[in-house]
Write a structure and sequence with these properties.
May play a role in early endosome fusion upstream of RAB5, hence regulating receptor trafficking and fluid-phase transport. Enhances cellular sensitivity to TNF-induced apoptosis. By secondary structure, this protein is an alpha+beta fold. The protein contains 4 helices and 11 strands; from the N terminus they run ααβββββββαββββα.
Length: 245
């Protein structure tokens, strides 16, 4: 089915519409063999709070961006190669329902659909695209992925020292290795994580010691409990998905 659509006029027009919605700030999306499988609005769990994002699933990439004008204009385009993607379901908790994790070596995050049916369809289509790509390329599934960041609102105190409370002076930071929300003193070190950046990135003291000595880091469940930390929205960065801390 995908192969038949690859060179169809209807597919080319649909991809052209997506390109036009992102404008000149977006990357060109039309290449031979690329097919737009589906699209829709998903709620992405961002650093400060959940936000609606427009997602487009192609047979080889996943594209998403901020909604400026629905079905007309999007910005901050992100492109994720599907070969590097793994997905895992997320248990329903509170208002966040019908979710799953999108995990890659560079970045990992949670998204939520409006209904259980929509979630099932998204996960099924993504899994099929990834499976087809790996079968064609002969590659193995990606083994390592970036940690899912714990949202700012989940931590009122440093998740490592459990002592420093966050406020406008004691700002929140994220360890790039474990994804924990940590204080400045607990995250003064940097370490090179090639899959995430060509430069050393911020890591917490615990992860730095483990990485420096070649030790094995204990696995962290990406399905953290929202009730484990009480809510507080004070943060050192804005709501941009790619905030530097």
């Amino acid at each position: 089915m995908v192969d038949r659509l690859a060179n169809s006029e209807a597919n080319s027009k649909r991809i052209g519409v997506v390109e036009a919605c992102f404008g000149t700030a977006g990357q060109p999306l039309a290449i031979p063999g690329r097919v737009l499988i589906g699209e829709g609005v998903l709620t992405k769990l961002c650093r400060k709070r959940p936000k609606a994002r427009q997602f487009f699933l192609f047979n080889d990439i996943l594209v998403y961006g901020n909604i400026v004008i629905q079905k007309k204009k999007y910005n901050k385009q992100h492109i994720i190669p599907l070969e590097s993607v793994t997905i895992d379901t997320v248990e329903d908790e509170g208002d966040l329902r019908n979710g799953w994790l999108i995990k890659t070596p560079t970045k990992s995050f949670a998204v939520y659909a409006a209904t259980a049916t929509e979630k099932s369809e998204w996960m099924s289509h993504i899994s099929k695209c990834v499976s087809d790509l790996l079968e064609k390329s002969g590659k193995s599934p990606t083994g390592e992925h970036a940690a899912v960041w714990v949202p700012d609102s989940e931590a009122t105190v440093c998740m490592r020292c459990q002592k420093i409370k966050f406020n406008p002076v004691n700002r929140r930071h994220h360890c790039r290795k474990c994804g924990f929300v940590v204080c400045g003193p607990c995250s003064e070190k940097k370490f090179l994580l090639p899959s995430q950046s060509s430069k050393p990135v911020r890591v917490c003291e615990f992860c730095y010691k483990q990485l420096s000595t070649g030790g094995t880091l204990p696995a962290r469940s990406d399905s953290y409990s929202r009730s484990e930390f009480s809510s507080n929205n004070i943060s050192d960065d804005d709501d941009d998905d790619d905030s530097s801390d």
